[in-house]
Amino acid sequence: MKILIIGSGGREYAIALKLLQNKHTLYFAPGNGATSKLGTNLEISDFETLATFCIENGVNLTIVGPEDPLTKGVVDVFKKRGLDIFGPSAAAARLEGSKAYMKGFLERNNIKTARFLSSSNLDEISKFIDGIDGKIVVKADGLCAGKGVVIASNKDEAKSLACDMLSGESFGDAGKCVVVEEFLDGFELSFFAICDGKNFVSLPIAQDHKKLNDNDEGPNTGGMGAYAPSPLADEKLIRRVENEIISPTLCGMKREGAPFCGVLFVGLMIVKGEPYVLEYNVRFGDPECEVLMPLIDGDLGEILLNAARGELREIKLHDKFAVGVVMAGQNYPYRSSPKAQIYVDKIPQNTHICYAGVSSENGEIFSSGGRVLVCVGVSDTILQARNLAYELSQSVKFSGAQFRKDIAYQALK
Ligand code: AMP
Ligand code: GLY
User: Fold this and answer.
1) 162 and 125 in contact (C-beta within 8 Å)?
2) Tens digit of each residue's pLDDT (9 = 90 or more) over 180-198
3) 223 ligand 2 Cβ < 6 A
4) If you count DSSP H runs as helices and E runs as strands, how many of each does the chain have, helices first?
5) Nearest to 218 by CA among 11, 410, 412, 406
6) Is 230 in the pocket of ligand 2 (CB under 6 A)?
């Protein structure tokens, strides 16, 4: 098949590597400095122009990586033009695009989540904050590139955060409505289901590492590493998430007139064995995707084309574990980092690199900031997979590279 991948990160690179196992021909919009070696990078961002490209070039399927084009309706545009595209409509993507919509949806469907208020009224918000004990979480309603959630340690701080968001000072229009909620104390897991509007198939449960430094210290990031499957979720918990969260979500979205087709990514907080929904995302996680792709047995292109057509089938999985270690630029996540050439020595067996923030010049790859690449190891145990990922990281050199040394520590405790 000819397949277009929308996006430019390590997630899209991982999807591409998987698709290449079945010899599909790939296009990227826009892609990065390394995807150009896997297929053709397109400099087209307008959805109608991209759809025209797909029609004129016989592209059979489009896979959307990031949330931004989804919330802006790329799926709706492509479907109207008669194209197969895997991802949710703009209406269904509101599960990620609006935290107020998401929390209201959870409430309407009796799905467990932190007690909350969404409002644009500071007095109402202050009253709600006065009734919360302990830490308080303040969230901007709209998309803020992962920066719109702040955890306040006391009521005054929470009120001042809410005030800055409402004034537009912190996040512009995205903060004109805020969600305030109680802090949940537990551990986080990432649950992924491939959905076709009616049915779903769960993927192995993954765990991300959001903090910059070892032991979960330092600022929040987009994710510094991941592994899957996580032994922190047993079969019973997985069935509960499917029955109490995923199924009701798909039924609820159908009732709301926005059936969900695409990747449903539920950010879970497990509190004393109980799964709570922290958030929905409407796409693969990054770096979770990088560890999920090697676990899928079968043709990903076929799997996602069937899902896009509402005909999802069983997905076979390898009985393996994957660990991914993110290597980021020296100033991540605060500001951009200087460009640096990436040197790769030998690549051990059962490891590979997923390139993310990179550019290319005369065939050489350079870091272009943020999360630069992910070192992935795949093996029979988490420990072996982790050792492989770290062995690979020793082969990768660029000036200022920083990475965590403890990915998967919760599973290995
Ligand atoms: P979100 O984008 O809503 O998932 O929030 C980003 C991160 O903030 C999550 O991955 C959690 O680490 C943290 N977080 C969000 N909501 C809560 C909550 N109610 N309790 C504790 N931590 C939270
Ligand atoms: N790794 C978390 C995310 O992609 O949102």
Assistant:
1) yes
2) 999 999 999 999 999 999 9
3) yes
4) 14, 27
5) 406
6) no
